[in-house]
Design goal:
The complex is a heterotrimer.
Chain A lengths: L1 H4 L8 H32 L5 H8 L6 H45 L7 H27 L2 H14 L6 H27 L2 H9 L4 H31 L11 H12 L2 H37 L8 H11 L3
Chain B lengths: L1 H5 L1 H34 L3 H16 L2 H14 L12 H4 L9 H27 L2 H9 L4 H31 L12 H11 L4 H33 L1
Helix pairs in contact in B: 2-3, 2-6, 2-9, 2-10, 3-6, 4-6, 6-8, 7-8, 8-10, 9-10
Chain C lengths: L4 H15 L21 H8 L2 E5 L2 E2 L3 E3 L5 E2 L1 H12 L7 E5 L5 H6 L5 E2 L7 H4 L2 E10 L1 E6 L18 E4 L3 H7 L5 H4 E4 L2 H10 L4 E5 H10 L4 E3 L7 E8 L3 H17 L1 H8 L18
Helix pairs in contact in C: 3-10, 3-11
Classes of the chains: A mainly alpha, B mainly alpha, C alpha/beta.
């Protein structure tokens, strides 16, 4: 962090340091005073700091403490279950989808020489059609809000006579969206690889599928690992949308607790802290991995230091989910 | 399928309201995100700390929680977000000026949440500018502000466009949550109302709602793809 | 939708006369070991010794999930009476959350066996499912702040200044739209009534509207802040939702309810739950066998 930014300004001299110090102190004091008058006082006035509201959440001797945390624990377990299932499913489906799209792309460029002309045209048309269909699916599910996708899954599946537990609606909804995003991450990773990789693979006689499986996909996974992990954070946050279909994840249980105890602000603060801690650790993990990878890559001499712009894009997109 | 024609006004109204939310929230998020980004790379430590803290908090919270705090935390602080009732602007975006504050609350939540991602997108752009550029600027004696303004930002802008666009697309999708926090009549709430209380068949409504969102997100995504490809070629 | 309530009741009543003859096949319940007609839903559930009941998880007094993780309330107790009559122990009930907008869907796709969730009987719903009951008659009302004298009934929203809150996709929300002048500036919708109550308390809205018993629950918890504005302006008979074609099961539930009205278990269920809010139970409603 400091290494990157210090490029933008000189190392401050004694005068600049003094000015910085003074303005820092002033800014900090101003922030604290502002927080006291604008946040603490109004909340205190409304009794939001009373133990009656906080007690069940922070005071172990409170009669409701153990029950509240048991419920929250259950909610957190459900959140993690849904997130874990969704991330595994999206990884599998996303990888398959990425491979499929890459294969279809190379198929559409093939001329099918050696086959009868009508058959060749048919095959070309078919691969073109398939490639368009997958493209449209990707665009549609990437363009829809996850809330809407989950809502559609939960309402749409029973419409066709298929019904599961709410957990599975949530997992399917999250998987549809995230598989598409992950597929795009992997695909842009594969397309961002230098053309030489593919050409070399062709030169030693690998088929397109072998090329993808043995050459492109493993490299793409490595380059895109940080982006994939930040997608994990997105999935974890998105499970909170389970409240729309009555899945009992953390927020939904929080809502039930609020219904009984009537302390919404307090419960939401606790839940927010829980989410921030877990997700912050995850994104730290992503940074750590990124650092390790780029260090490991230096000796290998392959261009992994700078992910292609598409990687940045997917990262931002991933992080931008709910 | 009749519902699409019979209740076209409802779909259109929902689309228009969602579009309003998106335009306003995008503007706000870009401005706030730029401010936070400057804070995060500034030489003043407390500002950096605030910027970093801000990004970490809002990036790691579910939007649902942010929405909740905007809709119920702000009133507890005694604010109805009346500062957003900007004269003139509320003539175009009529919901801004009404006595019902939930449109404004939803906007605030979206802006606060999205700004964290805008900041990261801008920062990734700044980081993409080769270090030599900023060093050369410094050796010419440019200050931090001048350095950003004349050397770094004009170059980083290009690298930021694509990630920024993705953030905005994500924000459009996120705006679907506003319907669950007191904003009546946006696209997602329309789905609820038509299939729930009015009992319309599910599939046609789903199609209508999807089209509404895809109209906004798909062209933007295609545009980004084009920009990205061009940049790749230019490089 | 509810504008046709009276017509609906009338229609249902005529139907009830027409079908009264079918209502008589008593399934021999009440004997020690339960036996039910072969192939009936009752027999299936009794054999499985398991039942899925749809209820609300956020409705104080009717169906609310407490800190213990078990739902409590009048709806829950009524469901328990019915389940007991099926010869299934109480701890074999699986309660499923059924918010207003998905109740029909859940019945139709079979994810619940019956729904007791402040479920108003109306014609639109009867197109997709069937109702046993009613077991209670509520009515839509308006909750305001204790010191508010400006709102006296639904007509107070007609001048376009007062703001009112309800729940997304619910019938009270649709009903109040008839009285509200400008939906965009007067109506607020949340996913739960708790949020509406908080919005009223914070002063963002002037009123909350839904069925009186739900509102009475909020008054009971915070008598210093809230009161009802005027009388109920609709009638909401609560029924038990079952599959549309399952007339036997519906008849069975109707018989069970009548028995519960007579032997006092219905009254006791009320007194233990929503009755604590000071709401009137009134006389037992007439079962509507259509």
């Amino acid at each position: 962090m400091s290494q990157q930014t210090s490029v933008l300004y000189d190392v401050p001299g004694p005068r600049q340091r003094r000015i910085t110090l003074i303005s820092s102190v002033v800014a900090t004091v101003a922030l604290l005073v502002g927080a006291y008058f604008l946040i603490y006082l109004p909340l205190d006035e409304k009794g939001q700091f009373s133990m009656e509201l906080w007690g069940p959440l922070v005071d172990p001797s409170n009669e409701n403490f153990s029950q509240v945390w048991q419920r929250l624990g259950l909610g957190f377990k459900n959140t993690l279950t849904a997130a874990a299932l969704a991330i595994v499913a999206s990884l599998v489906v996303g990888t398959l989808l990425a491979v499929l799209r890459i294969q279809l792309k190379s198929l559409t460029q093939r001329r099918f020489t050696g086959l009868a002309t009508p058959l060749a045209y048919l095959l070309r048309g078919l691969s073109l059609l398939l490639s368009v269909v997958t493209r449209v699916c990707v665009e549609v599910f990437r363009g829809l809000p996850v809330v809407i996708t989950i809502f559609f899954v939960a309402r749409g599946f029973p419409e066709f006579g298929v019904s599961f537990d709410t957990l599975w609606y949530l997992v399917i909804g999250l998987t549809i969206y995230n598989a598409v995003v992950i597929a795009e991450i992997l695909r842009s990773g594969m397309e961002g690889l230098p053309g030489g990789q593919r050409e070399a693979a062709a030169a030693i006689g690998l088929s397109p599928l072998q090329t993808t499986r043995m050459i492109l996909l493993p490299q793409s996974f490595r380059i895109m690992l940080p982006a994939l992990i930040s997608q994990l954070v997105v999935v974890l946050k998105d499970t909170s949308l389970g409240f729309i279909i009555s899945y009992e994840e953390t927020l939904n249980i929080g809502k039930q607790i609020i219904g009984v105890l009537g302390n919404p602000i307090q419960v939401y603060v606790v839940i927010a802290v829980l989410f921030i801690v877990v997700n912050y650790s995850l994104s730290k993990l992503a940074q750590y991995l990124q650092r390790r990878l780029s260090q490991g890559r230096k000796t290998a001499g392959t261009p992994a230091q700078n992910p292609p712009p598409a990687a940045l894009m997917s990262q931002a997109e991933g992080a931008g989910g709910n | 399928m009749n519902v699409l024609i019979d209740r076209f006004d409802v779909f259109a109204g929902g689309f228009w309201l969602t579009l309003q939310i998106c335009v306003l929230a995008a503007t706000g998020a870009l401005v706030l995100g730029a401010v936070v980004a400057v804070m995060r790379i500034s030489p003043v430590p407390p500002l950096r700390a605030v910027g970093t803290g801000y990004v970490n908090v809002f990036r790691n919270m579910p939007l649902t929680v942010v929405m909740f705090f905007a809709a119920f935390g702000l009133p507890a602080l005694g604010s109805n977000a009346d500062f957003l009732r900007i004269p003139g602007l509320d003539a175009i975006f009529s919901r801004l000026g009404t006595d019902l504050p939930y449109f404004r609350f939803a906007l605030i939540a979206l802006v606060l949440y999205t700004a964290a991602f805008v900041c990261e997108a801008l920062r990734s752009g700044v980081n993409a500018v080769p270090a030599g550029q900023a060093e050369a600027a410094r050796s010419l004696g440019l200050t931090f502000g001048q350095n950003l303004r004349y050397v770094v930002l004009p170059q980083s802008w290009k690298a930021s466009v694509v990630p920024l666009g993705s953030v905005i697309i994500a924000m459009i999708k996120n705006s679907a949550l506003a319907g669950f926090f007191g904003v009546v009549g946006d696209l997602s709430a329309t789905a609820d109302q038509l299939t729930g209380a009015e009992g319309y068949a599910f599939i046609p409504v789903a199609i209508g709602i999807s089209i509404g969102y895809l109209i906004m997100t798909v062209p933007l995504g295609a545009l980004l793809d084009r920009i990205e490809k061009r940049q790749a070629v230019a490089r | 939708m509810r504008i046709k309530r009276v017509a609906a009741l009338a229609a249902a009543a005529t139907l009830a006369f027409g079908l009264a003859a079918c209502g008589g096949d008593d399934a021999g319940e009440g004997t020690g070991s339960k036996s039910f007609p072969a192939g009936s839903t009752m027999e299936r559930l009794n054999k499985a010794q398991k039942i899925k009941v749809g209820t609300k998880f956020d409705q104080p007094g009717f169906g609310q999930k407490g800190l213990s993780g078990k739902p409590e309330g009048f709806d829950v107790e009524v469901a328990k009476i019915i389940v007991k009559e099926l010869g299934i122990p109480e701890d074999k009930i699986e309660f499923v959350e059924t918010p207003s907008k998905v109740r029909e869907d859940k019945i139709v796709d079979g994810s619940v066996d019956l729904v007791a969730a402040t479920y108003t009987i109306n014609d639109k719903r009867k197109e997709r499912i069937a109702f046993a009951g009613p077991y209670y008659e509520a009515g839509q009302n308006i909750l305001v702040k204790k010191d508010d004298t400006t709102i006296t009934g639904p007509d107070s929203f007609k001048d376009g200044t007062k703001k009112v809150c309800s729940v997304t996709g619910s019938t009270p929300a649709e009903k109040i739209k008839e009285y509200v002048k400008d939906v965009a500036t007067q109506l607020v919708l949340f996913d739960t009534y708790d949020k509406c109550r908080d919005a009223l308390k914070n002063g963002q809205v002037d009123a909350v509207t839904t069925d009186n018993v739900i509102l009475l629950g909020y008054i009971a918890k915070d008598e210093a802040s809230f009161k009802l504005a005027g009388d109920n302006f609709t009638k909401e008979p609560y029924g038990i939702g079952v599959k549309k074609e399952d007339t036997d099961f519906r008849t069975f539930i109707n018989d069970t309810l009548e028995k519960a009205f007579a032997d006092g278990s219905w009254k006791k269920a009320w007194d233990d739950t929503a009755g604590k809010f000071g709401a009137e139970l009134g006389a037992a409603p007439t079962i509507n066998r259509y």
